[in-house]
Specification:
Elements lengths: L2 E5 L5 E5 L4 H10 L6 E5 L5 H12 L3 E5 L4 E5 L10 H4 L9 H8 L1 E5 L12 H9 L3 E5 L2 E5 L7 E3 L5 H11 L5 E5 L5 H12 L3 E3 L5 E5 L8 E3 L4 H13 L3 E5 L3 H13 L2 E7 L2 E6 L7 E4 L10 H8 L5 E6 L7 H8 L3 E5 L2 E5 L8 E3 L3 H13 L4 E4 L2 H4 L5 H6 L4 E5 L1
Parallel strand pairs: 2-14, 3-13, 9-10, 17-18, 21-22
Antiparallel strand pairs: 1-22, 1-23, 3-5, 4-5, 6-8, 7-8, 10-12, 11-12, 14-16, 15-16, 18-20, 19-20
Helix pairs in contact: 1-2, 1-7, 4-6, 5-6, 6-7, 8-9, 8-10, 8-12, 10-12, 11-12
The structure holds ligand EPZ.
The site of ligand EPZ has 28 residues, from helix 1, helix 5, helix 6 and helix 12.
């Protein structure tokens, strides 16, 4: 199994260009099932989650060509041979469940295994199914898969008990071809929802309110093909901002959308990390003066993103003073704290909160990536640690970070990937 070997890397410096957003690409790829016409999706990094979803769609008869050089995917879902997904493949990623809404809308049925993803929580899909049932679908669970059918989807008002990103995306896609109007109340407002809605509207969907807590979709007869360039990955951008702060470096980050980064920029500034807007989509991140301990609480957007919790914990573990992180979105997303403690971090977990006593320095050792963002956090702490750190199970990291070792090496980091 591949590993990263990371050595102390003080003062990262230089430019890094952020890739397309994994969490926008996955629902947009699923949305291409809504039309028989050609779609083109650009700015698609070669991530294992993207490759896995493409493979699932191919198994169903979708024509997909992924030009990895150009980071562009051409899709034509004209001749679907089956509306069920491979159990093994679907279990590898959470995003696989997002094909249920489009299949239900276009083929009135689907048979999808319960999703996989990170071990950060139970990851139920009850809100997805609540939405589909409200639109008139019948669902049953057997052999680890959900079988769903509908004669004709009819618009309705759906209240989400939690502003679930995936449920909002799945229901929005299903509603585009339903009869009548669907209103999603307490909808997720993440930037990835806006990117998906933008793609659906290019296909001819009638959607309004995306980016707020109430989204209205008026069903249309058919959707046509579309071309779309995916938004940049705000979590990758945030991860590189932490890389600048934790190594006391000075990094220019290109391809960022400031509006998407607001909660991350707010907490970085509270910690006294300096940021400067160089151009419309270019940000400089550097340190000048002592970093400060902070308290943060993960919340649905526009609150602080749960995907940035692990990277931030790495930074706070070496800032003198007491910091507190409260994780309100997932029930088991502190797995990385144990690995950081092996590097010398002083972290005390009390139910949903982590109390962090900043230490002078971390020391390198052997650690394990437990999920995608935890793995990224370990790379960050290894950059600042004294001595070498060996990170195993890096397949987690490569699900969501394209060429991370190359990008970090270009900034002067001592990192290499070994099989
Ligand atoms: C998406 O997951 C992202 N994944 C996650 O990113 C991200 O952490 C999460 O949104 C929150 O922002 C993709 O977009 C592929 P949720 P998703 O449904 O859709 C509960 C990463 O690292 N819930 O908003 O699965 C759920 O248990 C990944 O890139 C229900 O109770 O997140 C959780 O506690 C990790 N019932 C909370 O909502 C449901 O039917 C948030 O889940 C659905 C969710």
């Amino acid at each position: 199994m591949a590993k990263f070997i990371v050595g102390t890397s003080k003062g990262l410096k230089g430019n890094v260009t952020i890739s397309g957003s994994k969490n926008a690409i996955l629902p947009i790829l699923a949305a291409t099932l809504l039309t028989e016409e050609d779609c083109t999706v650009k700015s698609v990094p070669v991530l294992s989650d993207v490759i896995a979803l493409c493979s699932m769609l191919k198994d169903m008869g979708v024509d997909i060509v992924f030009d990895k050089e150009q980071e562009s995917i051409a899709v034509r879902a004209k001749n679907i041979s089956k509306t069920e997904a491979d159990y093994e493949k679907a279990g590898k990623l959470r995003g696989s469940f997002l094909i249920m809404g489009p299949l239900l809308a276009r083929y009135k049925e689907a048979n999808i295994p319960l999703p996989g993803g990170c071990p950060i929580g139970s990851r139920p899909v009850d809100l997805h199914l609540k939405g589909f049932s409200a639109l008139g679908a019948k669902t049953q669970q057997a052999h680890g898969s959900i079988h769903i059918t509908a004669r004709q989807l009819k618009g309705d008002k759906i209240y989400l008990d939690f502003p679930s990103v995936g449920a909002t995306e799945n229901i929005m896609m299903a509603a585009t071809l339903a009869k009548g109007v669907t209103t999603i109340v307490n909808a997720a407002a993440e930037p990835e929802i806006i990117d998906l809605a933008t793609f659906l509207k290019k296909m001819g969907a009638d959607i309004s309110g995306e980016g707020t807590d109430t989204i209205t979709i008026t069903g249309v007869k058919k959707l046509h093909g579309a071309k779309h360039t995916v938004m940049p990955d705000r979590i990758e951008a945030g991860t590189f901002m932490i890389a600048a702060a934790i190594t006391k470096g000075d990094i220019i980050i290109e391809q960022v959308i400031e509006r998407d980064l607001k909660p991350i920029l707010a907490k970085l500034s509270e910690a006294n990390v300096k940021t400067e807007k160089i151009e419309e989509k270019t940000l400089r991140v550097y340190t000048a003066g002592k970093l400060q301990p902070i308290s943060l609480k993960t919340m649905p957007f526009p609150g602080f993103p749960t995907d940035m919790q692990a990277p931030f914990m790495s930074l706070l573990s070496i800032i003198k003073g007491t910091s507190v992180i409260t994780e309100t979105v997932f029930e088991n997303r502190f797995l990385h704290a144990g690995e950081l403690q092996r590097m010398g971090a002083k972290i005390n977990i009390e139910s949903r909160s982590a109390i962090i006593e900043g230490v002078e320095k971390l020391t390198g050792t052997q650690v394990k990536a437990t999920d995608l963002r935890a793995g990224a956090g370990l790379i960050l702490s290894a950059l600042a640690a004294e001595g070498k750190t060996e990170i195993s199970d890096i397949y987690h990291i490569e699900r969501g970070y394209y060429n991370i070792e190359k990008k970090l090496k270009n900034l002067g980091a001592d990192i290499c990937r070994v099989e």
